[in-house]
Write a structure and sequence with these properties.
- By secondary structure, this protein is α/β, with parallel strands linked by helices.
- It has a single domain, classed as Rossmann fold, CATH 3.40.50.
- The protein is about 55% helix and about 10% strand.
Amino acid sequence: MRAVDSTFPIDVLKADSGAIARARSMAERDELAAIPAPALAEILVGAYLRGGALLDTTVSLLNQFEVLVTDQAVAHEAGRLGGEMRRRGASMSAPDLLVAATCMVGNLTLISRDDAFARVPGLTVEHY
């Protein structure tokens, strides 16, 4: 199983050709995808802000993903990653650290177009 960050569902909703092609490829292989809870929340903030049909469409799309919870193991891994990155002079937002940590704890590949995830040591990222 792979996990997606917030960029992937947003790009699918925007009909981005790379995201659509990746989604079709996953569907053809019956490949399941999951979304870490912080990425889910990030997308829903924008959807609830805009409301209406966009909210309905967004919720419908997001319901297709398994939601990965943020638990104590994920929080500890996010803290470790954040500390390690700061020692190297890099930083990342807490939600993105939680997304990365969720993937690390679950041994999942992250599907994203966000280059910031490439800086996370040990995280496997697939760009689309």
